[in-house]
Amino acid sequence: MGFGVPIDRWLRGPLRQWAEVMLDAKTLLEQGHFDPAPIRAAWRRHLSGLQDMQYALWPVLMFQSWLKFGKPGR
Hints:
This protein has about 70 residues and is mainly alpha-helical. Helix content is about 70%, strand content about 0%.
């Protein structure tokens, strides 16, 4: 049986700075894969605690992390 991981809390706590870097509006715009406006809005909602946006943000964070660290030849 699997177990839940508190990504929602981690994004507001120990992973917050990393997520800020990965979700930087200027970087998102320059890369051209995502529209930064809805991502930044979701990030703000998540940080405020008004809405748990972990399921929307986590795939974007993983893609951004892959772009930065995981592409072959890097």
